[in-house]
Amino acid sequence: MRHRIAVVGGGPGGLTLARVLHRHGYPVAVLERDPAPDSRPPGGTLDLHEGMGQLALDKAGLLAEFQALSRPEGQAMRILDAAGTVLRDWQPGPDERANPEIDRGQLRDLLLDPLDVQWGREVVQVAPGTGDGVLVHFADGRQETFDLVVGADGAWSRVRPAVSSVTPHYTGVTSVETSLDDIDTRHPDLAQVIGDGSVAVYGANRSLVAQRNSGGHVKVYAKFRAPLDWHAGLDLADAEAVRSGLLALFDGWAAPVLDLVGHGTAFVHRPFYVLPESHTWAHVRGVTLLGDAAHLMPPLGAGANLAMLDGAELAESIAADPEDLDAAVCAFEERMCERAGRWAKITMAGLERLVSPDPAEALALFDHVQPS
Ligand SMILES: Cc1cc2nc3c(=O)[nH]c(=O)nc-3n(C[C@H](O)[C@H](O)[C@H](O)COP(=O)(O)OP(=O)(O)OC[C@H]3O[C@@H](n4cnc5c(N)ncnc54)[C@H](O)[C@@H]3O)c2cc1C
């Protein structure tokens, strides 16, 4: 049975779907807006959980390659208070493989390998029920028809309106991201503070988190509660102004902690948006969603894992019932929405505690999920 399947979006979810379908011998069109794989920075590091992202890679036949590339030592997690005192210093055991880290770019390349992604194909609208299937409209004016269109196109999905009218809403927590390169040679003191994995510093309604990527690259995230327009009057393209603004926001914090922000040279503003916790939709023949497009939640280490598991499970559902594509998609949607609803509650509650008026809440959450 040769269905015409289009996956809109070549993120972790879409590529995992395509890769598992490919493994089962199904041709699939991956339609990606970016003009090329390296047209923008791929983003920071991802921890892939044993029963989620790693399970999905296993279903794609890529677990061994992942294990060779990933960084188990990156699971290390240190927590400081605003004065720079170390409160927790968790180190993974030698065989600990529950949540190893991998750079997003490495994960993308691993998944991409044999896939024929169509780059520069921005989808603007999807129209189901057009007789011959689902009509996909592209930004360049072209149109194409498929039997199944999967929206794996992230938070601001252009596929989602075909099945659901919901849109993401702001959580009240925003973040500003910066990067440090060659940390071990350029900033050895900071490298000590960060350790092999991540360091998090919690204050009232704000936190600073730094995460090691491969090659001495570090991503730093300043997270804080603020109205969406907190930067009114501040030019976000002016790195000097943003740095000064952040240093003022974290005024009084210890010098080595503030250096995480002070050494940043470029800053990206990323407000945290979410979809409703129990987002579901009435099934529409020929269109479905996965990953952030279906269940955008706060970035607490679950989103990419869920997107990948969604992708792997949808592919397996299709391969198990090739005669009835619609039944395969319905079965997948039921399973995905139930799981996503649970994780949306967990991550939203987690965000409330990690960026909380009482920094002790963040420490208590850490002790709950990572008992020493
Ligand atoms: C700072 C930060 C840290 C995070 N850390 C983690 C972590 O450690 N672990 C974890 O599991 N999750 C993490 N997440 C969440 C994770 O990044 C997302 O949940 C995950 O990337 C979702 O994958 P996706 O494939 O659904 O969508 P995306 O990764 O958003 O991919 C969507 C793709 O679709 C393409 N696209 C968009 N619109 C169109 C269009 N109209 N036409 C064609 N293509 C389109 C985009 O270019 C993109 O390639 C983090 C998020 C943030 C912001």
Automatic annotation (TrEMBL):
<dbReference type="InterPro" id="IPR002938">
    <property type="entry name" value="FAD-bd"/>
</dbReference>
<keyword id="KW-0503">Monooxygenase</keyword>
<dbReference type="InterPro" id="IPR036188">
    <property type="entry name" value="FAD/NAD-bd_sf"/>
</dbReference>
<feature type="domain" description="FAD-binding">
    <location>
        <begin position="5"/>
        <end position="320"/>
    </location>
</feature>
<comment type="function">
    <text>An FAD-requiring monooxygenase active on some tetracycline antibiotic derivatives, which leads to their inactivation. Hydroxylates carbon 11a of tetracycline and some analogs.</text>
</comment>
<keyword id="KW-0274">FAD</keyword>
<keyword id="KW-0521">NADP</keyword>
<dbReference type="InterPro" id="IPR043683">
    <property type="entry name" value="TetX_monooxygenase"/>
</dbReference>
<keyword id="KW-0285">Flavoprotein</keyword>
<feature type="binding site">
    <location>
        <position position="292"/>
    </location>
    <ligand>
        <name>FAD</name>
    </ligand>
</feature>
<feature type="binding site">
    <location>
        <position position="104"/>
    </location>
    <ligand>
        <name>FAD</name>
    </ligand>
</feature>
<dbReference type="Pfam" id="PF01494">
    <property type="entry name" value="FAD_binding_3"/>
</dbReference>
<protein>
    <recommendedName>
        <fullName>Flavin-dependent monooxygenase</fullName>
        <ecNumber>1.14.13.-</ecNumber>
    </recommendedName>
</protein>
<comment type="similarity">
    <text>Belongs to the aromatic-ring hydroxylase family. TetX subfamily.</text>
</comment>
<feature type="binding site">
    <location>
        <position position="47"/>
    </location>
    <ligand>
        <name>FAD</name>
    </ligand>
</feature>
<keyword id="KW-0547">Nucleotide-binding</keyword>
<keyword id="KW-0963">Cytoplasm</keyword>
<feature type="binding site">
    <location>
        <position position="40"/>
    </location>
    <ligand>
        <name>NADPH</name>
    </ligand>
</feature>
<keyword id="KW-0560">Oxidoreductase</keyword>
<comment type="subunit">
    <text>Monomer.</text>
</comment>
